[in-house]
Each structure stands twice: as C-alpha cells, then as structure tokens.
C-alpha cells in the first residue's frame, strides 16, 4: 500500500512487513531508505563567496543554516576569524528553527490528528522571522564568508522576538509551556491547541513508549570531528556513524537534560512521548536563547582578508537546524575555488538504513496495517525528515 507521492528532489521510503505472532501483530521487518540528492556537488568550482550565496538556494529547507555552515567552512579554509558575528548568525538560525518548528505545529501535527492543516496561521510568525535579517545586516549580507556589515537594531529585534514569542504562546502552548510530565498531562487534557491535542494522543498507554529507537545521541559538535569524518570517507554522509554505530540528532539530542524531557522519560521511557516532549522543550527554549543573543550583539564589520601567510586549504562548518546538526566540509584549490564539497544533514543520521527510525520500527507492535501506517507517520513526524516520506505496508 503506497501512501505518498515521492518528489523528484528526494525522499525517504519506509517499507514494512507485518507478521502475526504469539503476542499479536508486529512489524517483523522495516526497511528505511533516504534518497537525498547531493546538491552540494553544485558548489564545486565556485568561489567561496558564491558558494555561500548559492547554498541557501540549493536546499529548500534550512537555508540560513546551510549558508552559515558553508560560510564557516570557507572561513576556516581561508583563515578568516568571523567570531564577532557568532551571536548574530545564531540569532538567524534560531529564528529559522522556530519557523520550521512552527510549520510542524500548525501543518504536520494537525494532519496527524486527522484535522486540516492551518498554514495561514504561520503568517504572523513568518513576518516576524523575516524582520530579523535586515535588523541585523541592513545589506542582508550576514552569511558571506567573513561576515557582513553588522549594525543591530535592538528595538526592531526585540519587537520581532516579542511577536515570535507571542505567536508561540498563542498558537502552540495557549499559555506557558509545560515544565514536567504532570504539567504536560494537564496541558494535554485541556486541549487548547493542536499541539496539546497531539500530546494527549502521544501520552496514551498504547503510544507513549512506542517507537523506542535505542540509538545513542550524536553528541558531536566539533567541526574538527565532522571534518575528519567527511574528508576521510566520501561515503560517510550516505551512512554516517559515530563510534561505529548510528546516532540520533535533533531536539532530543539538544534537550535530553531538559527538566520536561527528563520527567517524561522517567514516566514513559523512550518513544513517541519523549520525542514530542523534546520538540516542545526545543520550541520553548528558542525565544530565551534569542533574547540572550540579542543582548550580546555588537556592531561589527566584515573580515575582509586572511592573514598574509595563509593559503587556501580545507574547512568544515557546523550549524544547528530544527531537525538536528548540519555539517559542510570543503577543500579550496589554489584559485580559491571549491575543489571538493561534502555534507551530512540530520536526515542522513535519523533516516539511515539502520538509524533511529529503522530501530524504532523493528519489532514494534501494531494492531493492523492502517494502525501501522499511522504509527509510522507519527514517528516520522517526530524525527522530521527534510524530504517527503512514502510508506509501503506488506502483510
């Protein structure tokens, strides 16, 4: 039973085989395949600044994070120190992550409840998000290697942040976000938003612990680690490994120690409830983190040139997205053009053939094929691939 049209720009496909056993029906085997075009190859042959400008156009999602990772890789390869732009750039990628989470909350999560999506509800959020870049970089050049002309407008930034936080409070939480499992259950029972209604469903005894993947959290943040992995193995992105094993990246990795996630894990263990709690914690943290970044902003100018004794080399840039950690590695030739470029994205980790999704599905109990399909869609939504997902179920 095929349940999705897979677009030409890439896809995740899930094939399930169900079997009746002594304890009822379960997923006997799950095959997960991620087909994400290696658009990064289009960067090869470009000058560093052109590559950083092109990167957001090559990837339909997380464009700011893509541009930032490429810029950071170019800066390392060129010997540029753009540290004065770190707070501004983090503000840009956090705003993008909030937009991505927001889309999930009003489009994907209602679909998992059988309700109509509400894309129009994103209008206010996206208006506020779009105000961040010109309020930092009037020429909108913040992602160029070496940074742009940073002239933060604190009043405009705080206004945009207030609008984002207000949207979040109204559209997702209908009040303050829950802080532990008891508050989460009470919030879910009130059902004030689609997110709360989905929480009520995921906290049910039949779903809360379903989909436990058992994959370790990625944990690695060092550009040096990603550089060694990507440069040393051209096939790393197709089957990424940490310590020889698959790993999970994304909200749960970032929020594993958050009090809400710790409390939900103690009550329900691993599975859908824990993954959803991590997404809520990630959402709730973003405005606070952005407030800290705004307070740290100072005007800065571009870093125009590398030290005189440096020569083009290799570099790796890492950036956070709503879905997890993104890394770009590249090598410049003597003319400063990209001679090689490689990347690993969150979907490569979470939807690897033996990654978190595949591990969460193998052996999981289901009632029938329709129930299996919907449970898979819930788990896919919690892991949130950057491409469409098709599901085939076989008995």
Automatic annotation (TrEMBL):
The keyword Metal-binding applies. Pfam families: NiFeSe_Hases (PF00374). It comes from the Bacteria. Coiled coil: none annotated. The keyword Metal-binding applies. Ni(2+) binds at residue 386. One of its GO terms (molecular function) is nickel cation binding. SUPFAM superfamilies: HydB/Nqo4-like. This is Hydrogenase. Its cofactor is Fe cation; Ni(2+). Keywords: Iron, Magnesium, Metal-binding, Nickel. Mg(2+) binds at residue 343. Fe cation binds at residue 389. It comes from Azospirillum palustre. The lineage of its organism: Bacteria, Pseudomonadati, Pseudomonadota, Alphaproteobacteria, Rhodospirillales. Gene3D superfamilies: Cytochrome-c3 Hydrogenase, chain B. InterPro entries: Ni-dep_hyd_lsu (IPR001501), NiFe-Hase_large (IPR029014), NiFe/NiFeSe_hydrgnase_LSU (IPR050867).
